[in-house]
Amino acid sequence: MVNAALRMPDTFLTVTRTVTGGVIGLSVLRLDGHHVTAVASGEAALEHLRRQSFDVVLSDLGLGPGMDGWQLPGTCAAACQRSG
Q1: pTM (2 decimals)?
Q2: DSSP state, residue 67
Q3: What pLDDT is attached to residue 56?
Q4: Euclidean distance between the first and the last CA atom of the chain, given in angstroms as a whole number
Q5: In whole angstroms, how far apart are CA 30 and each of 17, 24, 48, 56?
Q6: Are the beta carbons of 72 and 81 closer than 8 angstroms?
Q7: Whole-angstrom distance, CA of residue 76 vs CA of residue 1
Q8: Which stretches of the chain score pLDDT less than 50?
Q9: What does the pLDDT read at residue 30?
Q10: How far does CA 13 lie from the centroid of its chain?
């Protein structure tokens, strides 16, 4: 039995200005056997987080117009609390 505290993250959501902006990081994570979903905005990240849980969310801080990487964590937390 594997201790859950020692389990490596399996699912990653990456949020970058352009999906191609994180290609190297995505490739490394995928080569290491992780499942990676990439989106290009904070709003798209929220939509994915409402439908699926992720072990790790990696985000650029300056995402451009709309929600930025500074606002994303608080918005995600509020959305998770509302959805239960």
Answers
A1: 0.71
A2: S
A3: 87
A4: 29
A5: 20, 10, 19, 14
A6: no
A7: 31
A8: 1-2
A9: 87
A10: 3
Question: At which residue do the structure tokens 């902006």 appear?
Answer: 21
Query: Would you state the pLDDT for residue 1?
Result: 44
Instruction: Return the residue matching tokens 């994915």.
Output: 48
What local confidence, expressed as pLDDT, does residue 4 receive? Answer: 55
Overall residue count recorded for the chain in this entry: 84
> How many other C-beta atoms can be found within 10 angstroms of the C-beta atom of residue 8?
9
Q: What CATH number corresponds to the domain at position 45?
A: 3.40.50.2300
Residue with tokens 């990240």: 45
Q: One-letter amino acid identity for 27?
A: S
Which structural domain, as residue segments, surrounds residue 45? 4-83
Q: Which amino acid is at 28?
A: V
Total domain count for the chain? 1
